[in-house]
Amino acid sequence: MTSESHVYGPAEEETQECDMGCSTICGFTPYIVSTDDLVVAQFTDEKWYRGRVLDVKDGTTPLEPQTAHVFFVDYGNNTWLTFDR
Question: Is the pTM of this model over 0.85?
């Protein structure tokens, strides 16, 4: 992964983009996600979008963060993101 992105949730239908940081603008806090969860996730452009979790993987070491494979429902992109912030 070339940039740091993060996953927050749960998502609400009207949430399409939060430019200033999801926890301050949308009021969401980080939580443990599961496959098929609807979330608000930060894409590599550092903006926040609605997404669906396709897969979740634990880090291979205690220092490595968990990651989630997220499909961005409004744009069709998908990528692996960390949710350690």
Answer: no
